[in-house]
Amino acid sequence: MTDSKYFTTTKKGEIFELKAELNSDKKEKKKEAVKKVIASMTVGKDVSALFPDVVNCMQTDNLELKKLVYLYLMNYDCEDPNPLIRALAVRTMGCIRVDKITEYLCEPLRKCLKDEDPYVRKTAAVCVAKLHDINAQLVEDQGFLDTLKDLISDSNPMVVANAVAALSEIAESHPNSNLMDLNPQTINKLLTALNECTEWGQIFILDCLANYTPRDDRESQSICERVTPRLSHANSAVVLSAVKVLMKFMEMLPKDLDYYGTLLKKLAPPLVTLLSAEPELQYVALRNINLIVQRRPEILKHEMKVFFVKYNDPIYVKLEKLDIMIRLASQANIAQVLAELKEYATEVDVDFVRKAVRAIGRCAIKVEQSAERCVSTLLDLIQTKVNYVVQEAIVVIKDIFRKYPNKYESVIATLCENLDSLDEPEARAAMIWIVGEYAERIDNADELLESFLEGFHDESTQVQLQLLTAIVKLFLKKPTETQELVQQVLSLATQDSDNPDLRDRGYIYWRLLSTDPVAAKEVVLAEKPLISEETDLIEPTLLEELICHIGTLASVYHKPPSAFVEGSRGVQHKRLPGSTESGESESPDTASAAAVSDAPPAVIPSQGDLLGDLLNLDLTPPTTTGPPPPASSGMQMGAMDLLGGGLDSLIGAGFGAPPAAMPASFSAPVSGGLDDLFDLGGGVGMPMGAYSAPKTVWLPALKAKGLEISGTFARRSGVIQMEMTLTNKAMSVMTDFAIQFNRNSFGLAPAGPLQVLTPLSPNQSIEVTLPLNTVGPVMKMEPLNNLQIRAP
Predict the structure, then answer these.
(1) What is the pTM of this model?
(2) 218-231 confidence digits (pLDDT tens)
């Protein structure tokens, strides 16, 4: 008998059991085994003997099992003597986005953040941001954020850049965390690292600098001087990030400072250089330049030729260059610009030609000295008889008329010659506006407008509205010749149209012309305000925010990030610092202006006052306490002359006969439909009253054992009421009336009991009013106003 029995045992070791489970055919058993291995590894047990068995588990489709295997491998890779292997382990660590195993990543990550090799440290910095996205609380509890802040002082510039990138990303997702506590010492460290790190590291640091607000103009100038060399970088993203920082800090510099002028000159060449790149980069650069030019046009005022269009430019580049050309146009270069634009107007690309023609009009509006030359150029283009050129020219000439009234009206005859060729809504609307506005100078204005009226219902809403206004203008200027025409258009707008805008404008004009033609003349023929030079400038507050986002998608879309980033997370509204002039105090005018701007916005007048303000009429109710005068029968709209009675001052006598065509809806008293439509509280001598629809039969007697119910809904003194007429058509007396409301679209329910004076004798009718509220149960009906009455 040998002693071998002392060395054998029936009890198998833990490693042996884990090895058996790792080689099991069952996926769940394998997964549990790998979890046990990781748990043992976490508490310090040596499980390196299982390395080949764990690696074999990678041959699976189960994503969770694969990530667990990676976690096991990382633990050993993080101890590898090769820094590239350690960095790769950390990078893999950041890609395992499983919340349950994040706590196992903490210890290896902590070691890597303090690794002796900078390549490992910079990779670990990015891993912290990824881990924070999975489990923010864990990262904060483990002190990783403080470690990241310490890395900003690292001796290696790339570690600094990645630490800044990680902190910026975390700060964006948690705006109130105050992670990036920037101070002059930190800024100095970032500027030192800026010169030595890679191009993407420079972008991270520049973006961080853009979020800093300098204490004064001296610090602002110092930062600008150290950032300026980045303008000559080969990478366009670095250039744009540097431009963003300089544009922001320039706000702090006094304009009389010599360095301010020097900085303006230094900004132009790098922006021009960006335009020699491929078309896609050119477009991004142009979109950013468009913002810069709106904020500081002086930067590129001498670089007009750079924006001249090349024959092989893609259309999106051409259109953007054209827009910038107009923004830079001035009296000094307008001749050069106009010559280019006239050339562009003969191109083949229709969209580009349209934009070029519009650009000529914008030049006329922006540079007054060039207006005559622009109009002459537009007339030359109209003579080409190219349809879309003619139409665009007419649209912009309308704007020129608005900007320079009574100056270039001699061209109207030429415009009228091309009336038949207009088929686009905007061009037709512009031509109609011109005819209506200058009707007294056009002999056959009524015939021209009548030709548009023939297909009124086929026109777009824009044309219909313009046509309605133009004919009313014509009537007020030539009342004796155009009464029938104005009646026709008002009837078309109010009776035959489904468009609420058109119908409401028609009703307003109808009421004005019927009651106070003098006021109508003051309103419709009022002097128009001059249009502004730049109608398409971005609103100043938005422009400031977009300047702070130069080099990002926001500057390409010309929209704030909140407009296209889903949700509010990570979106912060940025503003430029206030511009200060050294040695100057705020003037009293400035102070008063600031006080005005801080005041609350003007309150929109109530509905009852709005129409009065709009028409400059006194439509408020009379303040006298006596009884209102009785309404004469002459106040019946159907019985009064539609456009005659009050127009003696315009057209003299002879308009006494009622018009031939009178809309049926105008046969109601004045206290009816139109008063309620505009919520008028009286005024212009009209009787007051609220409109309610006429009663209709809700329940015929045949379906309700002889009880007929007619009714309507009305609002009296702000209370919704159901007004009913109950008629007994049976042979017996009716008593004990009650009502029950089912669920409905508006939640209508009785506000009190139904009170009916009973008994209701045969052939007797009684009026009943039931107050309602809207606190009942709601259920959507089809249609919404579906009303069903059932008798018990």
Answers:
(1) 0.64
(2) 889 999 999 999 99
